[in-house]
Amino acid sequence: MTEGTPLLELRKLNKYYDNGFHAVKDVSFSIDTGKLVGLIGPNGCGKSTMMRCINKLHRLSSGDVLIDGDSVLKKTPSELARSVANVPAQLRNNFGLTVYETVMMGRYPFMKNIWWETDKDESFVMETMEKFGVKRLQDSQLNMLSSGEMQRVLIAKAYVQEPRLMLVDEPTSHLDMKYKLEVMEYLNAMVRKDMSILVAEHDISLMARYCDLCIIMKEGRIIDIGPPKEIITAELIEDVYGVSASVGFDKDGELFVLPKRYRSESEHGRI
Questions:
Q1: Going by fewer Cβ within 10 Å, which terminus of the chain is more open, N or C?
Q2: How distant, in Å, are the alpha carbons of 42, 225, 234, 257 from that of 243?
Q3: C-alpha dihedral over 57, 63, 68, 74, to 10 degrees?
Q4: DSSP state of 174
């Protein structure tokens, strides 16, 4: 990596599914280190697909993804896991794992022998579980956790990978207001000068409060990129979501979005 090289760079990324659907369309952007970046857009706009292309869970149809100037296309899964961590919206198969076992999985890319963790690994995992408030749950199976506890465990697992880039998919989708704020506070505190976090999320007001930048997607394309307070407007919300909304600032200067009503295509045609 040379000075001035972005942490993450997408170059004309395209993703077609086997049925011919063009999910991500010629996407290019870059992210520097030390940023919390929100990825915003309606369902089906390509957010999750694009993130799965970044970490090679999906094969790229064309274009490239670079981490610190190096193409992910040349990296093995283990090599990529040392620089990119993934926090899914939910863990579909937990195989009866405990909290401790799940968080320890984040250390596997660094282990020379998959069956033996070092004292350093164990110490780091215990410290991380304490940091994220799940140490008391270390012997609990994942299927016994609340949604908020599960999200903290998945973030802890990603944290112990010591990634340069963390990809977080809809971290607050099943959480109440308290735990939404808690998760975003954790993510905000984790961003540092040598790491950035890309978060796909539907709560626009929450993203505007915490993110340094927002990337707006619609129908597989990037519509706008910039500081949320500069780019999120009522006009943008209507263009991207087809929804009439009030966009304003509270007494603390925080941006909020209040949806008012959905506008059908026939109504758009009369405007």
A1: C
A2: 11, 20, 9, 11
A3: 60
A4: T
